[in-house]
Amino acid sequence: MAAAPSPRKTYSYMAKLAWEAWRYEEMVEFMEEVSAAADSEELELTADKRKLLFDAHGNVIQARCDSLRIISSMEKDEESGGNEDHVAIIRDYLSRIESELSNICEGISKHLDLRLNHPASSAKGEIETCVAELKIDDQRKNTTLTDIAPSPPRKKYMYMAKLAQNARRYDDIVEFMEKVIDAAGSEELTFLERRLLSVAYEKVMTQKRYALTVVSCKDEGDEEESGGNEDRVAVIRDYRSKIENEISNFCDGILELLDSCLILYASSGEVKAFYIKMKGDFRKYLDDVKARA
């Protein structure tokens, strides 16, 4: 019987799957496991694993830097227009993204210090520059605004959802739109709220379905089985199952929202038809996943 693959090899392969499926957050997670699995006799990562580690962090860092640039530009526009309530909301959201970015930079910097026993001064320098820029942003963020009344929750979260849309942070849009729904209570959502809700869920679902398609092709195509890599086949199927569960839970969430309040509180046939179509779409996505299982 062949020996089981080492955790390092397993997580390295999972990181490659995540790369192909455009799931960069998970790629970071898996590559950190690769680094952590290095034993005391072999602390240095191989060249291909170092590349995976830096590619993983590079993608998640770049995405957040892009978001910061977009939202910071919106902050300047709102500031010049004297919209202090919007500026306050923007700064709250910037703080959230800055905190995420700072944690990521500190994480990769720690790997450079403790795990990677090779010349990496250039990469480490770029990370340290990123952290320094965040500290400068903290000074800007702490500038005081004139005392203003907080925005009503529904208005606040709708504006945050628009910020997230501009920054292409679709998971955040889903989160904020669910808070809009909570704040609306028994009131019907406006046209713009319905549209943003639908866009957010469809975008997130598209990303998950793409990932499932990529991983499923590796499984159903028998690429690894034909090469006798049974261990890798098991890894692929575990990862595929994880994505399928994500899709099922995501679909269950929006279907519950539609049934429990959105369709219930729809006051016109047009609005009800919008929600029923949305329900049909996500029911189909859910059925597709169950059919694959």
Can you describe what's shown?
- By secondary structure, the protein is mostly helical.
- The chain folds into 2 domains: 1-150, 14-3-3 domain (Delta-Endotoxin, domain 1, Up-down Bundle), CATH 1.20.190.20; 151-293, 14-3-3 domain (Delta-Endotoxin, domain 1, Up-down Bundle).
- It contains 11 helices and no strands.
- Helix 6 (153-166) packs antiparallel against helix 7 (170-184) and helix 7 packs across helix 8.
Q: How are the elements arranged and paired?
A:
Blueprint: H1 7-20, H2 24-36, H3 47-80, H4 84-114, H5 121-141, H6 153-166, H7 170-184, H8 191-220, H9 223-226, H10 230-262, H11 269-292
Helix pairs in contact: 1-2, 1-10, 2-3, 3-4, 4-5, 4-6, 6-7, 7-8, 8-10, 10-11
Question: In a nutshell, what does this entry contain?
Answer:
With 293 residues, this protein is mainly alpha-helical. The protein is 80% helix and 0% strand. The chain folds into two domains: 150 residues, 14-3-3 domain (Delta-Endotoxin, domain 1, Up-down Bundle); 143 residues, 14-3-3 domain (Delta-Endotoxin, domain 1), CATH 1.20.190.20.
Figure out the total of helices. Answer: 11
Give the number of DSSP strands: 0
- Kindly report the average pLDDT value: 85
Separation, N- and C-terminal Cα atoms: 29 Å
If you consult CATH, what is the topology of the largest domain? Delta-Endotoxin, domain 1
SS strand fraction: under 5%
The level 1 CATH classification of the largest domain is: Mainly Alpha
At the fourth CATH level, what is the homologous superfamily of the largest domain? 14-3-3 domain
Q: Flag low-confidence runs.
A: 117-121, 143-147
H/E element order: HHHHHHHHHHH
Biggest sheet, open or closed, and with what strands and sense?
A: none
Our Rg estimate from Cα atoms comes to 23 Å
**What is the level-2 CATH architecture name of the largest domain?**
Up-down Bundle
Shape: flat
Computed structural class: mainly alpha
